[in-house]
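Support case: user asked for a sample of complex input and structure output to validate their parser. Sending the pair below.
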Amino acid sequence: MSSVPMKRFEAPYLGAAYYPEDWPLEQIGEDIALMKQAGMNVMRIGEFAWSRMEPREGKFDFDWLHLAVDKLGQADIATIMGTPTCTPPIWLVEKHPEVLVVGDNGRISQHGARRHACPNNRMYRDYCAKIVTKLAEEFGKDENVIGWQIDNELYPEPRNGRGCCCPVCHKKFQVSTCKKFSNIEALNKAWGTDLWSQTYQSFSQLPIPRSDTWHHPSLLTEWMDFQSDSYIEFTEHQAEILHKLCGQPVGTDMMCLGGIDYYKMHRNLDIVQVNNYHQESDLWKVVFWYDMIRSQKDRPFWNTETSTCWPGATTANKYKSPGFCRANSWLPIALGAEAVLYWLWRSHWSGQELMHGSVISSCGRGLHTIDEVKEIAAGFRASAEFINETRCVNSGLAVHFSSLAWLMFEFQPLVNDFRYGEKLIESFYRSLMEASLRADVIYPAASLDSYRVVCSPFLPTLDEAGLRERIEAWIKAGGTWIVGPLSDNRTINATKFTHAPFGSLEQWTGAYCKYQIPGDPRDFALRWSDGIESAGSIWYDGLEARGAEALATYTEGPLKGLAAALRRKVGKGQIILLGTMPGREHLKKLLLSVCSQAGIEPAAQASPNLLVVPRKGKAAEGLIAVEHGNCPASLTLTRPATDLLTGRKYTGNVEIQPYGVMVLKYDPGFPI
Amino acid sequence: MSSVPMKRFEAPYLGAAYYPEDWPLEQIGEDIALMKQAGMNVMRIGEFAWSRMEPREGKFDFDWLHLAVDKLGQADIATIMGTPTCTPPIWLVEKHPEVLVVGDNGRISQHGARRHACPNNRMYRDYCAKIVTKLAEEFGKDENVIGWQIDNELYPEPRNGRGCCCPVCHKKFQVSTCKKFSNIEALNKAWGTDLWSQTYQSFSQLPIPRSDTWHHPSLLTEWMDFQSDSYIEFTEHQAEILHKLCGQPVGTDMMCLGGIDYYKMHRNLDIVQVNNYHQESDLWKVVFWYDMIRSQKDRPFWNTETSTCWPGATTANKYKSPGFCRANSWLPIALGAEAVLYWLWRSHWSGQELMHGSVISSCGRGLHTIDEVKEIAAGFRASAEFINETRCVNSGLAVHFSSLAWLMFEFQPLVNDFRYGEKLIESFYRSLMEASLRADVIYPAASLDSYRVVCSPFLPTLDEAGLRERIEAWIKAGGTWIVGPLSDNRTINATKFTHAPFGSLEQWTGAYCKYQIPGDPRDFALRWSDGIESAGSIWYDGLEARGAEALATYTEGPLKGLAAALRRKVGKGQIILLGTMPGREHLKKLLLSVCSQAGIEPAAQASPNLLVVPRKGKAAEGLIAVEHGNCPASLTLTRPATDLLTGRKYTGNVEIQPYGVMVLKYDPGFPI
Amino acid sequence: MSSVPMKRFEAPYLGAAYYPEDWPLEQIGEDIALMKQAGMNVMRIGEFAWSRMEPREGKFDFDWLHLAVDKLGQADIATIMGTPTCTPPIWLVEKHPEVLVVGDNGRISQHGARRHACPNNRMYRDYCAKIVTKLAEEFGKDENVIGWQIDNELYPEPRNGRGCCCPVCHKKFQVSTCKKFSNIEALNKAWGTDLWSQTYQSFSQLPIPRSDTWHHPSLLTEWMDFQSDSYIEFTEHQAEILHKLCGQPVGTDMMCLGGIDYYKMHRNLDIVQVNNYHQESDLWKVVFWYDMIRSQKDRPFWNTETSTCWPGATTANKYKSPGFCRANSWLPIALGAEAVLYWLWRSHWSGQELMHGSVISSCGRGLHTIDEVKEIAAGFRASAEFINETRCVNSGLAVHFSSLAWLMFEFQPLVNDFRYGEKLIESFYRSLMEASLRADVIYPAASLDSYRVVCSPFLPTLDEAGLRERIEAWIKAGGTWIVGPLSDNRTINATKFTHAPFGSLEQWTGAYCKYQIPGDPRDFALRWSDGIESAGSIWYDGLEARGAEALATYTEGPLKGLAAALRRKVGKGQIILLGTMPGREHLKKLLLSVCSQAGIEPAAQASPNLLVVPRKGKAAEGLIAVEHGNCPASLTLTRPATDLLTGRKYTGNVEIQPYGVMVLKYDPGFPI
């Protein structure tokens, strides 16, 4: 493995979260020495340290933080600075208990955990502004700081799935709903509140939809969408300050979850940051999330948190097999990241998360993964130029993901046990992955211009961000749209259409949906146009094709003889309407065939457990391959390539070890 | 299938719940046309529409409702009118938040769901009186309205199993308990409150028995019995108004649940209404409930709600096999109903239940069950005369069911996992059904006069409605009483007897209960007098026969050699005392033998999965047979008969399809 | 079986809990006659009868109680008197609702259950003092009373695992924490509160650590340790009164649970009392608890409660096989008790526990276990002299148990699903038992003087009661210490050490712990020095021996080649450090070998399902053997002995029936 020295603060970054506030300052030197040994070049710092930065109201102390940042910088280790607003000091909540999050059960949050202040509380916002301003003034021009992270893992806290239910939030929700609907009659009409005499007479009557009450799904969806907006507004408030005072890019580290709108969140941020704690058996699913994160901005993202081994709080949550750290650390890089940071550098010696895995232990010893970390660091260095100068190739294929859909399905699962994120990944995205079809995962608001095939399974409303009009135009201009099941079946207000089961799908395809049946407690068989029979899943629309081409037909049950999937040319493009979610193999076949017609080919001939990501830049081209199932894998190269991690040259068939990684740069001069 | 036109508003009725308030009024015509196509002749209407009837306090609007009723009537579709008191408008609860139900956790209910107003609150009662009076004035003489439904599914809401815990209920409970016991010493003595120093000094100290406290079972039983009484009083309050102003019969639609007293509820109502949402595997159990409902009044009942396919709220709760709708719709008719109404006519387009199955979809398309519905409608028409002119034959056999027993077992299950309703049906009633023994299910307060055999399994107290004295007299006059296990083991105050394990059973049978053992974690074997050994279940009384005839004897365990079941002649009658619940086959054998001796024979030689109901009237006689297990079945006819659904004649052995139905009218002139 | 008449009130005692307050006084005679028939010579009385003793504030009535005690005494039945403070009368809580326990959810407890008054409330303490003083004055010199039981089953009520959260407790917690740490900076430093800005500025800011908040484990541990102290202080308050006014020994009946400190509790009590309700499959586990209870005081303990058959509340909780009552009643006697009392004498006829098993039923009939009870009584009489004149032999082996460890693991399980009590018994104590190695179970505060081998698995802190210094001195003086896994890994403040994974273990053994891995989701194989390979469990320390003797070495995974267990001579003694919990067979082998080296041999060659307890006194010596697994067992005698229960003589191999018991007194004159 070559060992090219990196330029100071040059990507790709490998690092960790570092909490100098929890350790003696004298220990910084020892830590830095160990970081260097581990090959690290970035530390994330500051995110929870408000009480150290402002131990008493208005008394600021950044000396210790400067010391840490400076010493890190002197050692060529960059700093990502976090604003500490996730954990207000006790003097703040003691003086202003009204800033505390209130549960839907009326209980006021306590000091001692995280995320317990209300994002909408003005007093809290003011205190946040003060500390963020101070911090920005201190580090906004610091050359050792390469970026900002606002707060930490912003998300409406579970708390019975209702977020903050304080009076401020309640009032603000009423006001924002009023702004949206203008008058209460419009809301009543949109939500159909005549049902059960739910009709409101003024916006001030809108309740907090408590979890102990059987509430209207439109109200619930609106409430949680408001919660999402609240955290976005909260973030923008800080971003504005940072943008004014700092030179570095600004972001916020988010979770692999869908209830908060990533697209809206990033409109006013510079860099997308994501935390990942997938367990070993679920590792493959993180590909979906990175494909979504990458697609947010035309700029490499940061994997701000992941674990070298087990996540954990007061228990260590599962040992991982050798190689897991390697695959887990390379997946984001392959998929468009320029930074990977472990949580955390040194295990906490106290507190709620003292059993979480780390790079080194509380007593400064490398964990059993330390050699893997060093190998990863060396690999990053060895392939730095390739990583920095290439980007993931846009294949022309996209899959829709929507936080609004997430909320709608949360409050209207439609079928027992349907969970949007899980089903989208397990029953749809998995087939794409196994077929080596590389996709962007985009929000409905995203532009469709660069795609030739777009998939929209489980997308209940097309009325988000004007998608209905835009997708129609895009299809007519030549796009291929794979849609359904359970798509275009809700208005923007989470109600049904009344003219048809769908908003536009019947009109666009000419088909007629005769019956609809849930895939519970059983599934139904269908025969595909290739003559093979297999079962659908989740949901069953029984369609009369009426001029469209039936791709699959039900062979049993009340839908027998009706189409389960069909195709219709529309303008220069076409719609593939899925009335049910096909079995995995058949879906793979369908996707390969449809993509191929649109000129989209698999990234490689590769094992289904191997992620292969084509990368291309002005001066270089190649593939990054990561095995994510802890099994052997293989890949067929169409061009001779060199693995930058080993320097070995490959042609044709390549074998990859379990959790193996290859950075295959195509040899120059070979005709494409 | 013959197609006799029905007279206007003549039973049997097939219809659905219709919510014109949730749809454009212009759509009524389209709906009515579809109803006619589906063969419907009744709609249930109004039950939740308070905010449409009285959009502002004192401002009433019934125009839309008259329009709907009139148009339905013009199309020969009758209306059942519901009072809308289940869902008070927001102006009411906003003006009088004190009417809201309070949970046992102190939380006040919210607007936006159902059943959130306190049945005992005087203010709420007054508002209810106003809207019900108005509604009665408008429709009490309307010839299109054939009956009234008060409120909807009245039941102490689960809310941790404690009903409304508001101060009004609390006070009223103390007053009613005072009225019952006269003085606190009597209560202390009756409940044995010296235990754990629970002794009360005044009725004002009686607490709401919260679910987070380990409360006295006598207190819990009393509290929930009070809750039951509260809803009954609430209903009677409306019934009084309706009886004064209206010409039509009055009822309230209830659930298949036992915690509210059906017998007391119907003392002042005219027609029994019941809702049924049994899933496919449990369909057979509904027979028990219909047998109970029929036995409440000497008048055909109404199946006010059932589903064509899946029930559901925001998920569709399980597809049903073809034919389910048929069997499910005919079961009530066979068992004494004159009306079957689906919930709901047109699927809701919004709100909490928008995924519930229906007759037509939100966009006006028949569901996949539409042809079954039409076939059922045709069947009802074809057999209308037979249904209307015959009644279920009283076989002379009855089974006791008690809401007080339900409450006692809820708070004293006696054996792990014992649930009264489930066990009564699964371990006792099932054997009756499989033996084709037709029974009435009666409350302890019901007259015993028309029965020759009465079964009282799991009936802890005989002191309800003077049953102890009445049953003794009835036995002495010749009745056969099958009693136990777990019967006559509690006083009316839910305490044990202290002179013996039973109140009277030892005295009446002469037997002596030596030991009692729970059927947990194992069951014990017994040998029946026929020499066959099988296991008992649930509970084990070990009896010394002492002159009674042992029917079964334990063959193992600490009870070995003691009797498990015995018979004793008492006067002209006899008691069969069960010390354990026999295995299903043995119970069947026992019941057949005991009934036969009392001159009660099976309704037919039929498969266990076939319900056969003998029907008899002045001019006609026959059987209605419904297959309820989705399996083939057969039946041996003792007289030639014609299936009114097909016009085909049958003699001897008859095969019935899965979920098949036959209305077999005996051919005239054949000697009985 | 011989039937020697016992002296009045002479141990061993067999009896039950008797509640004359719940029955007509006229019935006492009948009860006593039945007690005599059953062979009973002690009754426990009074514990919940406050409302009968003081029906109105300041109005006392002890006549009924004197009547009961006197009549019992006249029948040679001793009384154990309970203070009734577990169940305050309603007049008390009505007058002073502030005495009621408050849940961590803010809900105030209700009258009607037990343990609902706050142990720290001064008003409640005053009322307790009054009733206890009165009771002591009445019965403190009563010759029929042989001892006192304070309150009942004192334990911080589950209530979400937080005990009483009332303002008095909150304040007192802050004060006691202040007292412990002196200044808030010390607390912040000890707990590491810089993490997440948790830093406190004054003790008055310390919150009640509610269960709905993700709190710091050091705070949680401190809070629950304070709860434990509160109940101990509450008990001492009564003990002081009783000691002043009474001549009899004082104790309190406790549960087989670890969250309250038994050692501290008994510093000021005279007699250890314990309640046991183990189910049949868990019966063997009670040996651990009795070994702990016996080790608290150099005086025979009382098994104050156990069941003849099923425990239960409003359900009867599981029938037991014949013989269970025998084995269950003899286990405490074998292990050092002088009294066994069933709960309860006569089944309650009302209330929350009316289905609990008993000696006689509510109607005065012996339960199916009555003959077993009589046989046990006869056995106690037959072997009274042997029981009274011998004590369990101290083998020189002890196992540490710590309530503080219990709390630490409750709030820091370290590995998924780790529960301290269960794991200690199932993965460690079980091997000791199966090897017939008899141990004392001692608290860290206990003296080590009488032991040659001490085992400290799962003992996170050595800083409780100065154990660190004491154990080191004890080892150097010749002790053998078996320690780990998961020992010496936490400071007294429930935080990690930062200089090493352990406080002293590396220093003492010379070993170096390279890696630590949780035993989740898989376990790792190790090879023992005997060449046999087996899997460890729970936790994996990978140790470099560095001069210590490796006893077992990992053969796979990241720890391959590192030591899993090692031995190091220290002074005249040695340390056996376990890095993982060995498999059951290997642990047994290790324990036998280590003990043997220290001169500790198994109590007998016996089946693993047979408890054999060597007993020795001035004039007698022998074994008590109890089969606890309901299987046949055998035992090899090294000396001729006579079974005092049968009078039969045995030598060599002895067969014991399932649930069989033998009291084997060695024949005199045989050389040891």
